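Exam review. A common question shows you a sequence with its structure tokens and asks you to describe the fold in words. Practice with the pair below. Do the first one on your own.
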Amino acid sequence: MWRRKATRECPADIAALVARAQRGDAEARNNVIDTLSAFALGVARGAGGRSLDRTDDEYSIALLALNEAIDAFDITKGASFQTFAGTVIQRRLIDLMRKRARIRELPRSSLITSTTGEEYEDIPAEVNAAEQRHRDVLLVEERRLEIEALSVELAQFGLSFADLPSQTPKHTDARATAISLAAALVADGALWEDCLRKKLLPVAALCERKMLSRKTVERHRKYIVAVALVLGGDYPMLRHYVGVRKSE
């Protein structure tokens, strides 16, 4: 576990500390983690929807994610480190929820046996019902975390999650075309990286590659950006929400 230091840097110095940490400065890394430890705990509490302390697994995962964010942060993309770190923490907590859900969904025979090795055949209905309720809660929390993480990314493009219903093309053909554009954008690594860095949809490049008019692409710009972020990120529960099928 990282060592807590007596001195603390002000938030304005975080970017400089992160840069030093990326160059191998262990003290700077410790300072970043120490300064943002309360922030990490807050994100973990929000993700879990319950009270947590520093002994809970969620907090440990949040600190590991914070350390991961230090290595992955790219200052040239324009986002603040705290915003970026919050997104990384949320995604790792989503991973934790998925892992827990998979464990709970293992066949009963693989989890419950008698002391003689015999499987229990009769499981009280109320136990099954309670486990189903817990799975439902996990799904709700996972969806909420995905929405929060996507909202952070959308905001960097000047968009909001609330924009999506009104920006989704009503006609099937138009929606399919927009999804195709988003998929083509994400598939082109250099173009997608440029889009994320500039926080702008490369309209001209997409028009040229798909032989479409600028008006067509501009009309669905917000939807294309949202779908691209979903396709390029870790948002399995939101794929259906934006109209993307599993095969896409």
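Now try the second one, then compare your answer with the model answer below.
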Amino acid sequence: MERETLRDRIMARVAAVLGMGDHPPPSGKPDLAPLLMPTMMERFGLDRSALAATSPDLVSMLEARCRQCAVKSLCMDALSRGVTVEGAQLFCPNASTFETLRSGETLSPGKVS
């Protein structure tokens, strides 16, 4: 049941982006990073808004990395199926940073691997 709830949430976010009308991303494709990254962060026990309040430059860097990721469709599918942290580490370019943040270590954009 939780998987359906998460899938529904992701799909609702995607639908909201697709309905942007006058403001599509330059490529003509929706920018899924603002949808996928907060959900992936939740999987790691992190809160995007809280991190953005204390480390906005770090969040910008993480979002840029997510935007450049070539496996967003895999990410969306994995999140909708309830991917574990261990599973996400196999494909998410931000997973190691999320894991470091989850451990309580403070990072700056220059220290991110």
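Model answer, second protein: The first helix runs from residue 2 to 18. Helices lie at 2-18, 33-43, 48-54, 56-68, 72-80, 85-88, 95-102. Full marks require stating both points clearly.
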